[in-house]
Amino acid sequence: MTPGLRPLIAGNWKMNTLVREAVDLAKAVVAGSGSVKAELLVCPPFPYVAGLAGMLAGSTVAVGAQDCHARDKGAHTGDVAATMLRDCGATHVILGHSERRADHGETDAMVKAKASAALAAGLVPIVCVGETLAQREAGQALEVVHGQIAGSLPEGFVAAGGVVAYEPVWAIGTGKTPTEEDIAAVHAAMRAQVGAATRLLYGGSMKPGNAAAILALPNVDGGLIGGAALVAADFLAIAKAAG
User: Fold this and answer.
1) DSSP letters of the chain?
2) Of 69, 92, 97, 187, which one is the catalytic site residue?
3) What pLDDT does residue 177 have?
4) What is the pTM assigned to this prediction?
5) Structural contact between residues 200 and 2, judged by C-beta atoms closer than 8 angstroms
6) What does the mean pLDDT of the chain come to?
7) Residue 48 confidence (pLDDT)
8) Pairing of strands 200-203, 61-65
9) How many folded domains does the chain comprise?
10) Residue range 83-99: average pLDDT?
11) What is the model's pLDDT at position 176?
């Protein structure tokens, strides 16, 4: 953890849950959040953002989204503007996730434009960075992450409280995690690049069994949780491990 920064535990539900499941999961997270000191965030699929934001209003659990468009309106069928998300009650938005970069061809420049839109709409962008297995094996992990941060963070990102999440691509949903030394090295490099005021999250197969050790590392200020976020007890256990 970084002194002075409140940890953030964010759940990325990805393309999972139907309405009843989403409501039940959100209710269970709120019900167990009383003793959690970390900031809690759930990021459901787009159709549920408004409903859950209304349902969780007044609780200690915030609601975010998983992506946004770089424009605030226009002929962009199927896309969602940051202004729309804010109007629905979202407070955060995940951007540049490796699944978006890989499946939708998103570049650093595209992520930067989306992050700018999020900031303009009053959302906190959570920008994801991370290397592939081939890049890590080639010794390029720090170089890749540095380049993604340099290319993806717009002006004003740090001052507005933007968040950076390190997710090694090869560890997402695979059950594999880097060594604690590897995580610490990447987070130290990110800290040197973005400064002391920016929260740095770790994502990539974080679960109750390894959360405490990872969250205790220097410069790890929380987690961006995937699969474990779909089980309220697991998500809350990770959050409690944050202190």
Assistant:
1) --TT---EEEEE--S---HHHHHHHHHHHHHT-TT--SEEEEE--GGGHHHHHHHHTTSSEEEEES--BSSSSSS-TT--BHHHHHHTT--EEEES-HHHHHHS---HHHHHHHHHHHHHHT-EEEEEE---HHHHHTT-HHHHHHHHHHHHPPTTTTTTT-EEEE--GGGTTTS----HHHHHHHHHHHHHHH-TTS-EEEESS--HHHHHHHHTSTT--EEEESGGGGSHHHHHHHHHHT-
2) 97
3) 79
4) 0.97
5) yes
6) 96
7) 98
8) unpaired
9) 1
10) 98
11) 81
Give me the catalytic one of 39, 99, 131, 167: 167
Q: Is residue 192 part of a domain?
A: yes
Task: Residue 119: give its domain's CATH number.
Answer: 3.20.20.70
Annotated catalytic residue 97: yes
Tell me the C-alpha distance between 33 and 40, whole Å: 8
In a domain, 231, yes or no: yes
Percent of the chain with pLDDT strictly greater than 90 = 93
Is 103 a domain residue?
A: yes
Residue pair 95/125 in contact by the 8 Å Cβ criterion: yes
* Residue listed under structure tokens 């940051």: 82
The pLDDT assigned to 21 comes to 98
Identify whether 29 is part of a domain.
Answer: yes
Predicted pLDDT at 172: 81
Domain span holding position 41: 8-241
What pLDDT shows up at residue 171? 85
